[in-house]
């Protein structure tokens, strides 16, 4: 077995399959693109779904990749086991309808055992197969694996419920008896069993069936191969480590954390080791996730980031680390991963800024969580209870980021236990809510056999021509190929077409199909890309269409012109945002319609009105400079050298189309544009808002729509001027300032009068002190405006020490406000304002609560006020 670094293992895997004719796909963003079924990219195959479900046919059916991935369903186990991680890399090789079992099994054995490659000892390798998959078993034996090293396991079948499925085979490495954690006669003591000796390093899925909604399994039109090899696991084998964490992927992080800790050393204490591992794993995850555009928030993937940062911060405290520290590990992650992910070090400053800001925010939250825990313990000790409720433990975990183990540890020091059943019940409820929120969307669709089988050539001519003569090569209706269609909805493919298919946020062209006599035979309502790349026209048939016939295709030119202008505006906007907000900003989505454009982008924090005005000015400056717009196809490496901007999260082939706007902007792009920025005329931002964690949205208009928007705003301003009786629009701000000043003065007058009324009411009320058992009580209905005035009276009552207890009520229409106060002496004798108001509030048809010294309630039953006051006296008298 060779001694290889993690970067060498990754590269060797990719090089092996490149030699076998595979294209190397770059690692995609961790944030899924156009896939609502996934929170994160969680496997190597997740970014290749479009190939496996048949929506796109790849140029090369053989693909290999090293894909960064995040899985968060086992966060609680990270640090406690040898293998659980939130961030990991999955090495994979994939066949989309090309090779199958007889090729992939020998290749797997060659990579693992050949002296040229990994050179693992064949005697230490074992495989498992699905019992009914005797073909795979026979192929392993033919490859040279002894029958004694092949185990049949019923679980070796990959199935996601609906969609592609099939048997799989797993490869295990025997780490030796010294790692065995079960007895020799234990039924789990075998490859594939629950033990630490046999480590799974590779899974090969034979995706040959389609699992239908009715439960049947039918053959896939194309049989596929999907494999996954966890880089961290293989590296641990190559580097002879007990767990993933002693490899070169983690140890630099752990060593750096040691320097930050309170003289703690990895390997000296098992509890400290858990903390070291959690910090190392979470540092990798948040670094890569933020680098790919995710930002901490209270929902979705942003919530995951926030939880990971907080969990790392809590474990930093356990190691004696004070203050923010996780951000310091970002360059360490970057240096470890530099050979394959150089972008981490390029974006280091921004990633550190985000993490440190979140750490600072959590410092206060962490103290609040500790305060809640300490209060819970104190309350239990006061009542003689010894168990923290599960709901409290879950709140500490869910709201404050406290792992339940830490809660147990702190509570245990005080002789207090934790209701783990209650905690698990709350955790299960949360998971059910999350599962319900994801809905029933399938993670992979079924292949469309009809469209996948169509291989006819089709050329797009619409870069320059909006009318063209073309032959109808393929005619589909009701998911079947036809030679003739007379009515209804159909799908058409022509040998060439000027119609643009929806892509990159730009909507599809619409228009008509005419026969040789100029009669409209179909209206084009949508255009999408077919699995093999052709422009697939969806049409409403108005007259007979025949396969093989010649037709005239005419795009709606005015619609295309307006769409193209708005598309160019998104390029200008993208570049302007980078200039104003920083290079970390990148496009997160767009929509280009004829009448407006929508542009989503990542940004840490809100965009100020001044920044928006600056962006708008930059875009308009480029329009008025009348910059030429050109495009050309070139090798992707050449495009990168020229500084062309790639759409974030997209993958590109070896040849790309680059659109250049004068000296201002150059981007990878597949959309349509005018020939000069002057065509846009004017650009105006109409709205800016946040749409998710760290994602902002700008809506804007150009040309005629921009003029109409400005005219509408001018009309509104003129109307406002008229209402303010201002003879000129320019005087409106001054008029509004005057009105605000007048309003503020009036409010002060009203507040002064209310204060006088409250003082008069106090004089009347505080003179009427009654006895209620052992307590003195002021209880009355007062004629004041509302709760604010009741609180003013409460402050006066406290300052003057009028009585032990105060109960005041006021009513306005059908709304009742109720206030209860208790003096320090009354509290010491067992009276709590919060308890008393809960007892009497039902009388006014409401409820409330508060502190022991002051509480308030609201209700909708003014007739019950006297009952509430009477009940207060009776409750005190009974104490």
Task: Give a short synopsis of this structure.
With 879 residues, the chain is of the alpha+beta class.
Description:
The protein has 24 helices and 35 strands. The mean pLDDT is 89. The termini are far apart. Strand 4, helix 4 and strand 5 form a beta-alpha-beta unit. It has five domains: 236 residues, Bira Bifunctional Protein, Domain 2 (BirA Bifunctional Protein, domain 2); 148 residues, no CATH class; 100 residues, Elongation Factor Tu (Ef-tu), domain 3 (Beta Barrel); 156 residues, Threonyl-tRNA Synthetase, Chain A, domain 2 (2-Layer Sandwich); 128 residues, Diaminopimelate Epimerase, Chain A, domain 1. This is Alanine--tRNA ligase. Pfam families: DHHA1, tRNA-synt_2c, tRNA_SAD. GO terms for molecular function: alanine-tRNA ligase activity. Its main location: cytoplasm.
What's the total helix number? 24
CATH fold annotation of the largest domain: BirA Bifunctional Protein, domain 2
Helicity level, as a percent range? 25-40%
What average pLDDT do the residues reach? 89
The CATH superfamily of the largest domain is known as Bira Bifunctional Protein, Domain 2
Q: The biggest beta sheet, please?
A: 9 strands, mixed
CATH architecture of the largest domain: 2-Layer Sandwich
Structural class: alpha+beta
**How many individual domains?**
5
Q: Which regions contain 5 or more consecutive residues with pLDDT less than 50?
A: none
Rg of Cα set: 35 Å
Overall form: globular
Q: How big a fraction of the residues is strand?
A: 15-25%
Distance between the termini: 81 Å
